[in-house]
Amino acid sequence: MVLIKSRLRARPQPSCPPDASLKAVRLQGRFNKKCAAAAVQPFLPTLVLGTLAVSFSTAHAQAASQDEAATMPAVTVSASSADAAQDTVRMGALGAQPIRDTPFSITSVSEESIRDSDARFLIDALRDDPSVMTSSGGAASYSAIQQIQIRGLSLAYNNNYKRNGLSVIHFGETAMESTGRIDVLKGLSGFAYGFSGPGGVVNIVPKKPTEEPYRAVSVGYTSQSLLRAAVDLGGRFGANDQFGYRINAAKENGETPIDKVRMNRTLFSGYFDWRVTPDLTLGLDLEQQRINRTGQPFSYTLADGVPLPRPPKGSAFNGVDYAGYDSRETLVGLNADWRINSDWSFSAGFLKQSFWRDANWSFAKITNAQGDLSGYTERDALQDFPGRSAQASLNGRVRTGPLLHELTMGFDWRSNASRRGDYQISPTWASNLYQPVAAPPTDLYAGRDEYKNTYSRERGIYLTDTLHLNEYWRVIAGLRHSTAASGNLNPAGVASSQYEASVTTPMAAILFKPQETTTLYTSYAEGLEQGGIAPQGTGNAGTIFGPLKSRQVEVGVKWQPTDRWMLTAAAYRIDKGLGYTDTSTNRYVQSGSQLHRGLEFMVDGMLTRELRLNAGLSLIDASMERTGKATVDGRRPPNVPRQVFVAALDYESAFLHGLGVSARYRWTGNRAYDATNARTLPAYSLVDLGASYRTRIDNVSTVFRLHVDNLLNTRYWDAGLYPGLSRTVGLTMEMEL
User: Fold this and answer.
1) pLDDT of residue 267
2) Residues 552-607: pLDDT tens digits?
3) Domain shared by 10 and 109, yes or no
4) Can you tell me whether residue 21 is helix, strand or coil?
5) Other C-beta atoms lying within 10 Å of the C-beta of residue 552
6) Residue 662 Cα distances to 117, 563, 612, 648, angstroms
């Protein structure tokens, strides 16, 4: 009461926090102009840039239309060509193929699907695929590095992620604002892309220039007070529209769905092309993103013998409020596509990446069933991950008598390294899972300049022949020869562990097409992945191990009875080398194998003119074999669910034009927590709802989108022993000018 009287008597303006956000706008239940201005201020550069760019491009388009109307031919946009391009994917050594005619399971997510789903993170865009899930927990999207696993196998950050088919280091956040398509090759990818984990490959295709002028501005909100503004510009100009551009800029700032976890993100991306001739196109890919996060929730582990406690509320903060990380990522890519003649084409690309990070992580070990824990902070200071990659391929068709050969031959190369400063760990302190204790202050700092601590290089050549025996049968055969080297260096630059290996890996497949809409296939492939690095805290920390070999057999069917339906099914067996920390000796070892046998089913189609169904089921029987340890042999690998089921419905109203409603149900089966399977993470299910409304405001096409994730506010343990995110609400408005 005293505070209220004092406020009424002096009538001061409510104070705004220095990092003003939407919460400041709602301060004390009233609309506060001062705080609203402070909250919007970080987004002004993006909105101003968008306004200026839209004005410029509009004026440019009008001038161009006046100057060239008499000389330029009419432009015809073919929907069938666009659809054909969308259904075709490039897969490294396998070349460019329609998805329906590939001997592997492939998921492709279009730019339109990414936009309509209002995806914030890479895993959001892929959540309709039951074979794809996060291996670090959904909460890690807002607090750590989000990694993905496919078919129960985690993807390596330095080998399994691509951009335009070129290797990138996936230590940051994939910007959805600049992503034009996501292609996921599920299963063994070593033949297609060289050294990589056997789970699969995620290829990010950036947005490309549009044929017609495109200008869009969007603003968005994500609970609790995370605001976002973005601009998307595309088009062509010059004589015969030979120059194209696609520019994206975004700004995001505020408190995330996790209390006390704040994010400040800035993105600029541009893709530019030059049609030198009708058959030769050069491309320039640029992107820079900076992310600053403060507030670092714990990453939990369980002490030996401690049962899994009930999960805490996903939005509640428990960690180190002053920890977090600052990252800067820059990408520069060059691409060339040359259509030599009607039978032959050539493509080449080069990508340079720089990723810098200064991180302060927080970890906690749960010591009893009541949730008592021991926490500590880890300073991983001044990390730098420079990377370069290149590829070139020649694709063509030749005939030998009645047989048609589709040939793909080429090479790829990559070079990665890491540089770091000090690695320091704070003393531990006591806290509780449900009644957090604030972290004590620490003075961890980088007491040493960066030094090069690891390197990794790879080069490979390949040849693939797709042999058309007749209109029904095709045989694919290929060989890849790869050489890889990897090493670990001490601060003096002396190698403490290293290896170099060369290997030739085969691939073979048979496809049967009884009709144009149906493909049955069987395939066999071998591949190598980089060996593991003994993690911090083990007795042999930092030791680099040699490559692990993998083999995969897959059989499947793809059926597209109409352009409104696609059904796929696949059965696979993946056998990969196994690396793990032996708890009895506290040393990282590579011994035995990890065997995954699985079934996948996917259906996507229109139930009616207004109602679309997208559903899938993943069944995995995984085990660890030949480890030499009776407590591990035959057990399930950690974090691999036996079953995942997803069903999504999208309804476009026939009665209220422009209204759309969506619903998604995802059920994830239980997972082993540790290698001995002594403890299990329970199964859980999530329900998401969404709605959209398309209209015109002052003759401007406008779309409002609303989504509610985890509608029932389910509490669950996600991968990596992160508490699952609580109910999260998102709202966006997009205007195409």
Assistant:
1) 97
2) 999 999 999 988 899 999 999 999 998 877 777 888 888 899 999 999 999 999 99
3) no
4) coil
5) 24
6) 9, 21, 9, 7
Short-list 205, 38, 23, 31, CA closest to 109: 205
Output the pLDDT for position 528. 85
Q: Of 185, 172, 183, 190, which Cα lies nearest the Cα of 458?
A: 190
CA nearest 467: which of 524, 405, 521, 512? 405
β-pairing verdict for 344-366 and 299-302: parallel
Note whether residue 666 is domain-resident: yes
Please answer whether residues 135 and 639 qualify as being in contact, where contact means their C-beta atoms are separated by less than 8 angstroms: yes
Taking alpha carbons only, the member of 523, 521, 412 closest to residue 478 is 523
CATH number assigned to the domain comprising residue 367: 2.40.170.20
Q: What is the total count of domains within the chain?
A: 2
Residue 215 domain-assigned? no
What pLDDT score does 144 carry?
65
3-state secondary structure of 28: helix
Task: Measure CA 634 to chain center.
Answer: 31
Do 120 and 6 fall within a single domain? no
Beta-bridge partner residues of 261: none
Identify the pLDDT of residue 139: 59
DSSP sequence for 242-285: -EEEEEEEEEEEEE-SSTT-EEEEEEEEEEEEEEEETTEEEEEE
- Kindly state the helix (H) or strand (E) to which residue 40 belongs, with its residue range: helix 33-40
| Separation of CA 357 from chain center | 18
Which residues neighbour 635 within 8 Å (Cβ) at sequence distance 6 or greater? 623, 624, 672, 675, 676, 677
Let me know whether 668 and 723 are in one domain. yes
CA distance 627 to 633: 6
User: Which residues in the chain land under pLDDT 50?
Assistant: 1-42, 44-86
**Residue 447 confidence (pLDDT):** 62
- Nearest Cα neighbor of 19 from 177, 224, 172 is 224
Distance CA 691, CA 605 (A): 19
3-state secondary structure of 587: strand
**In contact, 313 and 359? CB cutoff 8 Å:** no
Give the C-alpha separation, 497 to 518, whole Å.
50
Q: Is 44 helix (H, G, I), strand (E, B) or coil?
A: helix
Helix (H) or strand (E) holding 86: helix 79-86
Dihedrals phi, psi of 466, to nearest 5 degrees: -100, 110
SS3 330: strand
Domain coverage including residue 668? 80-206+256-736
Tell me: the pLDDT tens digits for 286-345?
Answer: 999 999 999 999 989 999 999 999 999 999 999 999 998 899 999 999 999 999 999 999
Residue 33: which H helix or E strand, with range?
Answer: helix 33-40
Q: How many residues does the chain have?
A: 737
DSSP H or E run through 564: none
Flag whether 240 is in a domain: no
Task: Count Cβ atoms within 10 A of the Cβ of residue 536 and give its class: 0-12 exposed, 13-18 middle, 19 or more buried.
Answer: exposed
Q: Measure the CA angle with vertex 616, ends 611 and 622; round to 5°.
A: 170
Closest CA relative to residue 291, chosen from 266, 320, 254? 266
SS3 label, residue 213: coil
Is residue 282 within 8 Å of 276, Cβ to Cβ? Answer: yes
Instruction: For residue 383, say if its preceding peptide bond is cis, omega within 30 degrees of 0.
Output: no
Residue 207 DSSP symbol: -
| C-alpha–C-alpha distance, residues 245 and 258, integer Å | 37
Q: What's the angle, vertex CA 589, arms to CA 536 and CA 134, rounded to 5?
A: 65
Contact 496, 542 (CB under 8 A): yes
The answer to whether residue 247 is domain-embedded is: no
DSSP state letters, 153-189: EEPPTTTSEEETTEE----S---GGGEEEEEEEES--
Structure tokens at 552: 């995969």
And the tokens for 29? 């239940």
DSSP labels, 649-683:
EEEE-SSSTTEEEEEEEEEE--EESSTT--SEEPP
Pair of tokens at residue 598? 């699985």
